[in-house]
Amino acid sequence: MNKILDICGKSNIMEPIRSFEQLTSHLQSLNKKPRIAVVCAKDANTEYAISRALGEGIAEFIMLGDATDLESFTSLRRYPHSVQILHIVDPDEAAREAVRMVRDGEADILMKGIINTDNLLHAILDKETGLLPKGKILTHLAVMQIPTYNKLLFFSDAAVIPRPTLQQRIEMIWYAIRVCRQFGIEQPRIALIHCTEKVSAKFPHSLDYVNIVELAEAGEFGDVIIDGPLDVSTACEQASGQIKGIASPINGQADVLIFPNIESGNAFYKSVSLFAGAEMAALLQGPTNPVVLPSRSDSGLSKYYSIAMACLTCKECL
Amino acid sequence: MNKILDICGKSNIMEPIRSFEQLTSHLQSLNKKPRIAVVCAKDANTEYAISRALGEGIAEFIMLGDATDLESFTSLRRYPHSVQILHIVDPDEAAREAVRMVRDGEADILMKGIINTDNLLHAILDKETGLLPKGKILTHLAVMQIPTYNKLLFFSDAAVIPRPTLQQRIEMIWYAIRVCRQFGIEQPRIALIHCTEKVSAKFPHSLDYVNIVELAEAGEFGDVIIDGPLDVSTACEQASGQIKGIASPINGQADVLIFPNIESGNAFYKSVSLFAGAEMAALLQGPTNPVVLPSRSDSGLSKYYSIAMACLTCKECL
């Protein structure tokens, strides 16, 4: 169990969060409301997500964008003290101003509405005025609630780094460990994914995995279990490893899947969402503050869960 | 509708096969029993698959391997006229003999039991005595029945070619088209999978896709719909394309997914099997005759469906 400080400053034992429902309850128990700067909200799914977060009482919002786009967001009018509107017509200007607010401590979390991802990233990555500290790697960490899996499943990277280097893979693992701890997972089980359990020079990432497992065994990552190469079924199903005669310390109970490349991470994310009815939350990793960067096609629920994940991992909440 | 010749030689209209149940019924209506040479069967899942195929009356079997391994296969004793046992202790010798039987027309289909895949492939790929015609590309085509999708979904390549070249992708598409036609799919919809819908020089396969779509539009592949790059959700869900404003002729109704690399194909296969309860069949493509090459961890049902797929695509059945 992780020790955390509760709102009275007392040391507390945290139960691991195993579902998005538990995530909301946990945030409500913290009784904190981080301020989320939302750039160019204009779609019904974003409205649903924000309205839900307001209803659950887990966040406050600053909406930056064309105020006429927000006129239809009638559900937000019920929370006049928790929603502030800044009328900025130009999307790039709205992005820059939202980033500035986060930098200057006027907001805690950044969230994308309907603006081109590249345009928002441009503001986030600006060396002078952005949110990514020098030398930090920008990557994507998502977490899925899959009806047929018994806990939340984190994975990286389905959206940002096409072919991670060894150093980038190590950073991805560090980010995942940090977030797992914030979810109360004492000893995260991290599976390094490949299409087989064999190491081969034909697949350079499988050689990276050998390095990473050695580092983990030497204690480099602290109290975690890291193993690979494993395929998705050996990582997430006990019977699969038994049939193949593979004894992995992950034991079919992975908390985190690290994918070898963006195509495999994305295929996993899209197919499990679509065919297994999974709901998802995701955040950029690397910036000083949580950044919620949903896809246009993400459901309102997924956008809400991403807000909740941001609230949990936000400095303001911890 | 595809025209096929029925057993009386009359021209017949074939309804598309949309489930594995329909596949079995269709095979039964053909009233043909291809002979399947099985190398080193010794596990319960293989026994189940063979016993089921015998019970459905869709095939006959020649079992090559250590006869003592087969002693526990009591379920096969019910079909003495449809099962022949060839006692060969050495697995490599059994593999070579099974391949010879297929080459010489004494068997129609080759199937792997519990023998190292590389050892069986060695016999299949032998330039003098194997089953792969010179210049033919060896690849893997699988088909899934996903409870949450309204038809069978074919995909390639989750198991053989790590990073296909343009020429290999074109061959993969040709194999998929041929098999789709055998399943009665008049105008197969083939989605070229990527993590986004954007073409970018950063992802060479997305440039291959542009070439392939041009070839398809020029009529090179006949009456098919080919589009890409698309992600899995845009390929298989209408709403997803609509939200993103993407007008693809696939229209969220893909019959075939061509994956950019083996990691993404394998992540799709393993995660949809595990989390969406999908059943699967798969065959090698390229050899003169169907080759069933299941994973050790495939279920008995998946092994049976692979046998059924082999029977459908076998020259003997057509």
Textual characterization of the structure:
2 copies of one chain form a homodimer. With 318 residues, chain A is α/β, with parallel strands linked by helices. Chain A has 2 domains: 1-136 and 287-318, Rossmann fold (3-Layer(aba) Sandwich), CATH 3.40.50.10950; 137-284, Isopropylmalate Dehydrogenase (3-Layer(aba) Sandwich). In chain A, 37% of the residues lie in helices and 19% in strands. Chain A contains 10 helices and 13 strands. The first copy, chain A, has helices at residues 20-30, 44-56, 91-103, 117-125, 166-182, 204-217, 232-236, 238-244, 262-275, 300-313; strands spanning 2-5, 11-14, 35-39, 60-65, 83-87, 109-112, 139-145, 153-156, 189-193, 225-230, 256-258, 279-285, 291-292. In chain A, strands 10-9-11-8-7-12 form a 6-stranded mixed β-sheet, with helices on both faces. In chain A, strands 5-4-3-6-13 form a 5-stranded parallel β-sheet, sandwiched between helices. A two-stranded antiparallel ribbon of chain A has the order 1-2. In chain A, α6 (204-217) links the parallel β9 and β10 (225-230). Chain A is globular, with a radius of gyration of 20 Å. Chains A and B meet through α7, α8 and α9 of A and α7, α8 and α9 of B.
State the helicity of chain A in percent bands. Answer: 25-40%
Average pLDDT across residues of chain A? 93
Distance between the termini of chain A: 16 Å
Number of domains of chain A: 2
Order of helices and strands of chain A: EEHEHEEHEHEEHEHEHHEHEEH
Q: Which CATH architecture of the largest domain in chain A is right?
A: 3-Layer(aba) Sandwich
Question: For this entry, what is the oligomeric state of its chains?
Answer: homodimer
The largest contact between protein chains, plus residue counts on each side, is:
A-B, 42 and 42 residues
CATH topology grouping of the largest domain in chain A: Rossmann fold
Would you count the extended β strands of chain A for me? Answer: 13
The CATH class of the largest domain in chain A is Alpha Beta
Rg of chain A, rounded, reads 20 Å
Catalogue the unreliable spans of chain A. 5-11
The major beta sheet of chain A can be summarized as: 6 strands, mixed
The coarse silhouette of chain A is: globular
Helix/strand-derived class of chain A?
Answer: alpha/beta
Beta-strand proportion of chain A:
15-25%
